[in-house]
Structures are given as C-alpha cells and as structure tokens.
Amino acid sequence: MSSSFTLRSASEHHRHSVVLALLALVLFAIGNYHQSVIGFDSRFVLFAQEMLRHGPGLFPTSYGEPYPDYSATSTFFIYLLSLPFGQVSSLTAWLPTAIASAVVVMLMYRLLAPYSRNWALASIALMLLSVTFVTETRAVSLDQMLAAVAFSVFYLAYAADHFGASRRLLAVFALLVLGFAVRGPIGLVIPTGMLCSYYLLTGQWKRMFGVGFAALALLGLCIGLLLWAADVSGGASFVQDVIRMQVTGRIDGSEGSSGVLYYFTSALGNYALAYPLALLALICVLVAGRDERGPALTLLGLCVAAGLIVMIGLSIPMAKKARYILPMLPMAAIAAAYPFQASQGRAFVFLRGLIQGLWLIMPTLLIAGLLVIRHKFAERMGSVSGVIGLLVVLQAVALAFMFKFRAARIPGLAGCAVLALWGAYILVFEPVERQMYDTRSLTQSVQQATQANPAPLVLYGMGKDAKAIKFVVNIDEDLLPVFADTPEQLAALPGPAWILLSKADYRKLPVTSGTPVLGGMFDKDDYMLLRRDH
Fold it and tell me: Where are the domains of the chain?
C-alpha cells in the first residue's frame, strides 16, 4: 500500500464500509415486509411461488411451464429467503437486490476512502440520490445484481494493484459465472468489458488478453450449459425460445428498440444527479484539472472508461431500457463526486458548492413537490403532514450542518438529502404507486366469487405473460386459467364459466357474453367479472 494511504488502515476502511453497507441495507429494505406486488415484480414473485410449491429447477416456471427469458438463479435466491417463512413476500423478493446494492455501497467506500473519505461518502450519496437506483433497489432487479457483480470485479482488480490485496482470479471468474447465471450472456460480457478496459488503460496487455480469452471461453462454456439446460427443461423448441429471448431478441430489436444515443441522452434524467454532474466534473477536469496528478485522477479515468464501456457496449443492441446500464451508475457517481477529491481549480470549488447546495435544499424541494402532488392526487395520497414534518426536521438538521457543524458538513448534508429522498419515496410515492397499480384487492374478490360457485375462469384479453401474471401472482395456489383474446374464442368456450376482463373490452362484446357480478380497479384499469351459465 502506498504512502498516500497510511492515514487510515485498510482494516479501518473495511469496518467503516461494513457499517455503511448494513445501514444502507436497512434503508433499502425498510417497510417492505408484505406489500402488494405490482408491475414487473409480479413475474419474479410468481416464479418464486411456483418454485416454493414444486421445488427448484433449471429455469423458472409460470403456469407450470419453463420460462425462457431467465435462468433460475435469481428466483433461487428469492426461494431460499422465502423458505423460512413458507411464502414469498415483498421482503424476500426484494432482499437479493437490496443486498446487491449494499455490496456496491461497501465496495465504493473501500475503493475511494483511501484517497478521500469525503469523496467516498459523496459518491455513495450521489448514487443513492439517483431515482433509477431507488426504484430498482426497491424491486426485483437483475440489472442491479449485475451492477454489484461488475463493480466487484472492477474493485478486485484495482485493489490487487493498488491496495496490496491478493490477486483473486478465481473470485473474478466466479463473479463472471454469477453474472451469467443472473443476467445471461450480457451478465458476463459487461463485467469482462469493464475488467479489460482497466487492464488496457493500466498497460497490463498480457493480463488483458489472458483474461479476455479466458472469459470468452467461459462465455462459450456457459452458453453451452444454458442451451443444455434449456433442452433438458423443454426440448428443442424451448432452446429456440431461450436463444430468441436472451440473445437475438435483444440484438435485433424484436423485443423493442431505441436509437444509438438513447443511453447518453436519457441518462440525464434517469440517472440524475450523478450522470449530469459527472459530465460537468469531467469538463472541469479537462479545463481546470491539468494540475491535478496522482492515483486519484488515474482512478477517475479508469472509472470513466469502465462506465463508457457499459454505455457504448449496450448501445449496440437495439433493445434498450434505462435499467440496463445500472452498472454504469457507480462509475458516474464516482466521477460526479470527484470535486470533493480535487484540491485545485475554481471550477472544482464551484462544483463542490453546487452539489452541497443541492443537498441542502433537497428537503425543501421535496416538500414543494409533495404539496403540488398532494393537490393533484388528493384522493389517493391522504395526509402527508407526517412526511412533511420529517422533511422539515431534515431541513433544519441540514442547515445546522451547513452553518454550525462545518467539520461534518459533507457527510451531514449528504445524509440529510438521502434520507429526505428515500423517506419521501418510501412513505409517499411507493404507497400511492401500489394503490394505483394494485391487483391484489380485485383478485381476492374474484377468488371468493369463483370458489363460492366453481367454474372455469377465463381471462379475456389479459395476455398470458402480461396482465394475467399480475392476477395469478395473488392466488395462493396453482391456477391454470383459460385464455381468450377474441369474441369468437370466447363464444366457443363451453359454459358455465367466469370471465374476467376490462370494462373497455366488455363494451365490445355481445350482451349475451355474461352477467356482471363484480368490478373494481386492476392495474390502474377498470375490470369486471362476468358469470356465464350457458
């Protein structure tokens, strides 16, 4: 370890990083024991429910059939956490993602604290203030798990070269396998690209080629095992589905497409504050950072290169979603917080002041936003006085750190801003979102009605892999409903039957389709349950 790191021992950094990770984990998981399941989470909760009922397999299942888009790894994590409780809850579903996010927090502190404690804490705060990070951490997110894998690989390589840590190639390759197991081929390619960029920029050519070719061979082996598992699970047709869903569908855009510059432009909003501030910090480095030299600036360059590898590499496939570039976010946060490490240049002084100013007014901005939203969604939100009271307290504490407790200004302001944003999200936004997109209430009413007068349940126009999953996930037993998408298909089904459909679809059907029994909101749409006795 170089002399620049002698102010604090490695063991002290490690202790602090573990404490930060545990505190972060509490923040990430608090208040989510048994929330209703909505949106994209429904699919993974259904996978885990079926695994809990029937045991683990090589692929997750829905309606008892293997699902080709993912391997069973992430579902297995949820399954293990759910076993002690005998059921899948929002806590056991989200906990793997929360743990992955906490790992990133821990390693980010270990990476940066030897240079500057303020740089480390500011980077963590800017990452935690990204809305995409918040929403993905409070959900089932394979991309956040991949972000933890990728950052771990980068950290292991850097620590071996700069912190006197042993070179853990076996751990690196184990992480690459884990990335593939969680996210498919992209889960191995992204961390490998970040690792090779590190070796390239540090002049370790032999290691770059060695790791690169070894990872390529590992990718081929993993793909072979994946296709073998697909053949065992569902035969040749399922193998083709796996190839289409996990590889070709993402490359050719058949699963949805966006422009080449999508990530570079959309990240300004999706990954604010970290990404826009990172761009400003890099401009300052180019313009005013010529006098800044040393290992910290070198680390900044390595992080920027790793982040660019993610953004450029994922811009090549046509299928693009904001969450796919989550492995870039820790690197962007590190770059955005670099002004807290840089010691020279007025531009860095300005950026430090700007970031601290944003942290300072964060509680007030959130209060203003809550009041506006409260006026617009008064019937859904209820009282927000408690949350506003919390934000007022945090604003007062932030002002105290700004003007009185200046020695702890940076961690104090950053902590108040993080608590304000996460508090508002957990206490206000999340409950409103779950109320708006609730599927549990109507599902339970439908289940009571169908159990009282048994007959086949028809899900009309709901999509086997879309709305239907959001219904089935709320049933505590295996359910194989009948699916119909056209009036002709519905008319051909024998009675008696129960029919669940949207009110919009009901208006398009003949009046003889069935008798309305009950109705309610389902995933933000008005739905009805019909009874047909002939």
Answer: 3-245, 347-436, 440-532
